[in-house]
UniProtKB/TrEMBL annotation:
PROSITE patterns: CYTOCHROME_P450
Protein name according to UniProt: Cytochrome P450 26B1
Gene Ontology molecular function, alphabetical: heme binding; iron ion binding; monooxygenase activity; oxidoreductase activity, acting on paired donors, with incorporation or reduction of molecular oxygen
Cellular compartment(s): Endoplasmic reticulum membrane; Microsome membrane
Bilayer topology: Peripheral membrane protein
GO BP of this protein: retinoic acid catabolic process; sterol metabolic process
Residue numbers binding heme: 339
Reaction catalysed by this enzyme: all-trans-retinoate + reduced [NADPH--hemoprotein reductase] + O2 = all-trans-18-hydroxyretinoate + oxidized [NADPH--hemoprotein reductase] + H2O + H(+); all-trans-retinoate + reduced [NADPH--hemoprotein reductase] + O2 = all-trans-4-hydroxyretinoate + oxidized [NADPH--hemoprotein reductase] + H2O + H(+)
Annotated Pfam families: p450
């Protein structure tokens, strides 16, 4: 496993660091719920199966279209990272969990969730005004809000037109004679939102930034959509979006792959050494925690030429730079604990790219692009301010009433 040398990057030892990692893992690993409830991993593969994705897709598309309409009708610029966070939160709440919250309830829950996320990586020191205490408080409020939403969902099953991830979780518990308690449901719900939120918001923001920086890529994407009858006269044709259709769009696939190579949201992950081994002359003892770096792997893998250049064609049929080796490209991690939601994440990003190409013209509202910060997930250091304009079915800009009045008076 030559690639493993790249993957295994930094060794960590020491009580403090390990206990901190344990705290983060204990609190937030979705699959912890498996050990409490003995639900098989199969349940999670059901949640993210091809069939499930097919039912989520129209909902994902609706959430994205609504959001783009709001962005386009905004008279000024919008702050993309913050809005992308709201968008992925909304996707998790409405699509994955099927909660029917009002916009007001959703916004409130989002604010509390943000407070929780901001304090996730705080030291576990429980003092008044500490980040840890704020995080715990936000978590409690969140869990109360989630409990209310779950209760309503359990009582209100009428008029439901599709099965969401939470339904699968509840049903599978029953099937295995292991009905999930309310506490388990709340934990699973929170962890699902947490896993989907920051990573997908980061990648969505990077997508918009790269499409702005590379208009030729956006144009090539539009050509591919047009060629496949998806971008027909500028609008996404009703019923045209299916998971298989999206999977067959090769250039779109290259764009998303390249995005996740160069702007991989998560920089790495932790593993515990189960058996002492040697690497490059160093002995790594059993029981140590090791950190593998996704970002360094992507930066140093010899298969990628001009690593700093955003070049989707590197994954095209002529070059296929990723074809050699299993561990050069791992935006979703590697091994048995890799990302469970990767198909959903890719589907979401591809749908966003399709809708952006179809529904919007967008331009940077500042003179320069903000710098990129790599932690805790890749995100703009300042604000990424962008002005969005809606496009009609002929790909002409939609003129708002105010614009029309102003235009008439000039
Ligand atoms: C672009 C978006 C995403 C990226 C880049 C990403 C990346 C990752 C990575 C690198 C890991 C493994 C960390 C490790 O090695 O320990 C991971 C784990 C995980 N991800 Fe994602 N993720 C994304 C979106 C999602 C979404 C939308 C979901 C669905 C809710 C999700 C659910 C999970 C879960 C449940 C795990 C834990 C798997 C386990 O421990 O067995 N992710 N993700």
């Amino acid at each position: 496993m030559a690639g493993a040398r790249k993957v295994l990057h930094l060794l960590t030892a020491g009580k403090f660091f390990n206990s901190y990692i344990a705290y983060v893992s204990y609190e937030f690993r979705l699959t912890n719920i498996l050990s409490y409830s003995a639900l098989p991993l199969l349940v999670f593969s059901k949640i993210f199966s091809h069939e499930a994705l097919e039912t989520y897709l129209p909902k994902i598309q609706l959430v994205i279209q609504d959001t783009l309409r709001v962005w386009s009708s905004h008279p000024g610029s919008i702050s993309v990272y913050c809005e992308a966070q709201k968008l992925t939160f909304r996707m998790a709440i409405r699509v994955l969990l099927g909660f029917r919250l009002s916009d007001e309830e959703l916004n409130h829950l989002f604010q509390v969730f943000q407070q929780f996320v901001e304090n996730v990586f705080s030291l576990p020191v429980d003092l008044p005004f500490s980040g840890y205490r704020r995080g715990i408080r936000a978590r409690e409020t969140l869990l109360k809000g989630l409990e209310k939403a779950i209760q309503e969902k359990l009582q209100n099953t009428q008029g439901k037109d599709y099965t969401d991830a939470l339904d699968v979780l509840i049903e599978s518990g029953k099937e295995h004679g292991n009905e999930l308690t309310m506490q388990e449901l709340k934990d699973a719900t929170l962890e699902l939102i947490f896993a989907a939120y920051a990573t997908t918001a980061s990648a969505s923001t990077s997508l918009i930034m790269q499409l702005l920086k590379h208009p030729a890529v956006l144009e090539k994407l539009r050509e591919e959509l047009r060629g496949n009858g998806i971008l027909h006269n500028g609008c996404v044709c009703e019923g045209a979006l299916r998971v298989d259709t999206i999977s067959s769009l090769h250039y779109l696939d290259c764009v998303i792959k390249e995005l996740l190579r160069l702007f991989t949201p998560i920089s790495g992950g932790y593993r515990t050494v189960l058996q002492t081994f040697e690497l490059d002359g160093f002995q790594i003892p059993k029981g140590w925690s090791v950190l593998y770096s996704i970002r360094d792997t992507h930066d140093t893998a010899p298969v990628f030429k001009n690593v700093d250049v955003f070049d989707p064609d590197r994954f095209g049929q002529d070059r296929t730079e990723d074809k050699d080796g299993r561990f050069h490209y791992l935006p979703f991690g590697g091994g048995v604990r890799n990302c469970l939601g990767k198909q959903l994440a890719k589907l979401f990003l591809k749908t966003l790219a399709i809708e952006l190409a179809s529904m919007s013209r967008f331009e940077l509202a500042t003179r320069t692009f903000p710098k990129i910060m790599p932690v805790p997930v890749v995100h703009p250091a300042g604000e990424l301010k962008v002005r969005f304009y809606g496009l009609d079915s002929n790909q002409n800009e939609i003129v708002t009433e105010t614009d029309a009045i102003l235009g008439a008076t000039v």
